Amino acid sequence: MHAETLTRNEAIPLDVPALAMRGIGKRFPGVVALDGVDLTLMPGKVHALMGENGAGKSTLIKILAGVYGKDSGTIAIGGVETELKTPRDALKKGIKVVFQEIALISEFTVAENIFLEEYPRRADGSIAWKTIRAEAKALFDRIGFAVDPAARTGDLPVSQQQMVEIARALAHEAKIVVMDEPTSSLTPKEVELLFVVIRRLTALGIAVVYVSHKLDEVFEISDTVTVLRDGRHISTKPIGEHTHDSLIHDMIGRRIENLFPRSRTGSAGKVALSVEGLSTDTKLKDVSFEARAGEVLGFFGLMGAGRTELAKAIVGYDPIRTGRITIDGTALKPHDTRTAVSLGIGLLTEDRKLEGLMLELPVQQNMSLAALSSFAKAGFVDEGSERSAVQSFVDRFRVKTPSLFQPIKNLSGGNQQKVLLARWLMRGLKVIVVDEPTRGIDVGAKSEIFALIDRLAGEGLAVIMMTSEMPELLGLSDRIAVMAEGRLTATFSREEATQERILNAAIA
C-alpha cells in the first residue's frame, strides 16, 4: 500500500446529494420489480443497499447504470435532473458500477482495461502507450494500491481486478461508485484492503453504494443503509441506529429468533465417511479425517486452502494420487462419482449455476435428476411418481415456486439451493458435502438453509460443510477442521473452537 496524501475532487460539493432517485418504478411482464423507490446518496459517504434476493436491489442498480430504463420517477445527479438511457450515459455522468461478475477483458493489460473506452492519443492520432501506463499508475497511487499497469488482467487475483475496476471509475472522474457483492470471492485480508480503498474513495468525495448480504461488513463500512423489500423502500437510516436484529427485521419483515437453530439433541453416531492419507497432484497433501452420522463437520480455510478440492475429491469428482476413502465401511472403488453416488454420498457444489443446475429446465427435472432410476418402469420414467416425489420435497423444504414446471433460473438463490439439496436426498444419502451452501443467498433464506442442515444431521446424515463464513462455521458445526495450503492443520470440537484459534490454524 502507498501512503500518498489524497486530494478531494473540489468539483464535488459535499452538501448536495450526489444522487437523488425519487419514486423509481420498474415493471417486467407479470412482475412489479420496483414500486416508488427512493435512494439518496451523499458525497464522501458509504451507503449500503440491502434486501433479500428479489427485493429490487439489482434492478435499481441496473437503472442507475443505464442498463434498464425506469418506467417512472426522477433521477438527479449533483442536484441536476437527468436521464440515464445507456451505460455510456451513466459513465459520462460519473456513475461506475463494479458488478459481481467483473467486466474486464482478461487478455488486455491493466492499463488497456482502465482506458478502454477512450485511449489517450498523440498528436498524430496514435495511442500514447507510455501515457496510458503512467496515468494508470497515478490512478493506483490515488487509491493507495499497487498494481502493475503492464500486467495481463486475467493473471490477477479477483481483489486486484476489483482495484482495476475502481481505477477505471477514477479515470472517468466518477462521483458515484457502486459495489455489488464485492467481497464474495475475497479472503479476510483482501476484504481489509478493499475497505481501506473504499475509505480512500470517500475521502476523495466519492459516494459509494455497497451491496452485500454480509451484515458484519455492512456495519463495519457503512454510514447509512437503505432496505428494500418486495420492490418497495422500507427504510433509510444511519447504520448506528440499527442493530443486527432490526436490520434483519426490515429486510425480511419478521424477526429471526435463532439464526443458527439447533434441534439436535443426540450425540454423533457411527463413522459414515473415512478419509485416510488423501493426496492429489494439484492441491491436497495427506488429508485424513472421519465424519460421523448425525454431525455437522465444518471445514474452514482461506482462499486456496483446498476446501473445494477436498469436497470434489471425496465424492469422486477430482482424481486422487494416493489415499483411501470409505463410505459406511465400503471403499470408494473405482474412484468416480457414479460409485460415490451409489454408496450414498452427494455434493452440493460451490457454484450452483455452473456446476449444479440446468438453468433452462424446470424445478421438477432439476430436483429428480439424481433419482430418475427410482421412477423408471419398463425403461420409461413414471411422471406421476416423479411429480409426487418432487412435490413432497417442495412442501417439506418450503420451496417457493409457482409450479413444478417453473424454470429453475427464475427462482431465488435460496430456493435453488433447496432444490439441489432435495435432489440428493431424493436419491437417498448417508453423507452430503455442502460447499459454501449460503453463497449469494440473503439472510432470510440463510436461516432456512441453516435449519435444513441441522435437520439433516438430526435425521442421521453426516454433513460435511465447507465454508468461508465464520459465523455459520461456529454456529452450525459440531466439529471444525481447518485447512491451509492443501493440508489439514487442526480439528476443534464445538467447545474448543474460537475465531482466533481457527484463524491461527488457517495461516499455519
From TrEMBL:
It comes from the Bacteria. Residues 19-255, 254-507 form the ABC transporter domain. Keywords: ATP-binding, Cell membrane, Membrane, Nucleotide-binding, Repeat, Sugar transport, Translocase, Transport. It holds the Pfam family ABC_tran. Signal peptide: none annotated. Coiled coil: none annotated. It is a peripheral membrane protein. InterPro entries: AAA+_ATPase, ABC_carbohydrate_import_ATPase, ABC_transporter-like_ATP-bd, ABC_transporter-like_CS, P-loop_NTPase. CDD domains: ABC_Carb_Monos_I, ABC_Carb_Monos_II. Transmembrane segments: none annotated. GO terms for molecular function: ATP binding; ATP hydrolysis activity. It is found in: Cell membrane. GO terms for cellular component: plasma membrane. Belongs to the ABC transporter superfamily. This is ABC-type sugar transport system ATPase subunit. It comes from Kaistia hirudinis. The lineage of its organism: Bacteria, Pseudomonadati, Pseudomonadota, Alphaproteobacteria, Hyphomicrobiales.
